[in-house]
């Protein structure tokens, strides 16, 4: 469902305080690093971050050289949500209801390996925020397919292109009865900050999915990260939406000035596809988002 025609997101001031330190070891052009920077600007210093194994385990680094200015807990791949739930329980036992616990996981740690803990924490309506920064494959181990990898993508384990479509995790989270679900990407910082601020204010289990372009794994020039994220949204290959507990709203309509085929062709992970296959994937992508946003 679209927002009413007179609906506008209020402009959000971007705080000057930096909670991500410079000099971290993310690849040049990594979309996941500025995503964390923006997220922490919205959430503020009263935040604890839990990071299961992922690229961000490396980007965050080890004590005493953490790249974050907020407390950080590293966990194994499968236990990000469980550890965050435990941390939240410990804070509550100390009477601290102000500090937000945010699990920050890649798609492998969310859609696949960490799904059991995620489902458990969501079903218990744990008072926490879970963020999946989705680079659409296991990038920290060299780019193997995950269930978040889009159809047609060439990865280390799908050299001919992945046959299956991306898992509809957004509605799986909705089905858990959580209080907030949203999608965002760094190319639209106002939309991004608005959703993180909203998630900060809510109680219960909140889930935000981030499209996180990865120049290393997707195969595009490192200075094009924002352009690629914008092409994804404007072509309709990725939708900016939110679930407010009752229904899906689109927070930014695609302009369709860019075609899904153009978005795909800008990345070498789709270079093996023929023109006809690109058109077929464009159709499947449109059908995928239609299906996601119609489940109300
Ligand atoms: S592999 Fe991709 S997601 Fe991981 S740090 Fe490099 S650019 Fe970022």
Report on this model:
This protein has 296 residues and is α/β, with parallel strands linked by helices. The protein has one domain (32-294): Rossmann fold, CATH 3.40.50.970. The chain is built from 11 helices and 8 strands. The protein has an 8-stranded mixed β-sheet, with helices on both faces. β1, α2 (55-60) and β2 form a beta-alpha-beta unit. The longest helix has 20 residues, at 275-294. It is globular and about 60 Å long. The structure holds iron/sulfur cluster (SF4). Residues 26-27, 30, 32, 55, 135, 139-140, 214-217 line the site of iron/sulfur cluster (SF4).
N-to-C series of helices and strands: HEHEHEHHEHEHEHHEEHH
Output the CATH topology. Rossmann fold
Poorly predicted regions are: none
- Under CATH, the homologous superfamily reads Thiamin diphosphate (ThDP)-binding fold, Pyr/PP domains
> Can you tell me the CATH architecture?
3-Layer(aba) Sandwich
Beta-strand content bin: 15-25%
Total strand segments: 8
Straight-line distance between termini: 9 Å
What would you call the quaternary organization? single chain
How are the strands of the largest sheet arranged? 2-1-3-4-6-5-7-8
**Main beta sheet strand tally, sense and closure:** 8 strands, mixed
Mean pLDDT: 94
What structural class is derived from the secondary structure elements? alpha/beta
Cα Rg: 18 Å
- Fraction of helical residues: 25-40%
Q: Please, how many helices?
A: 11
Q: How many discrete structural domains?
A: 1
Q: Say which molecules are bound, naming each kind only once.
A: iron/sulfur cluster
CATH class: Alpha Beta
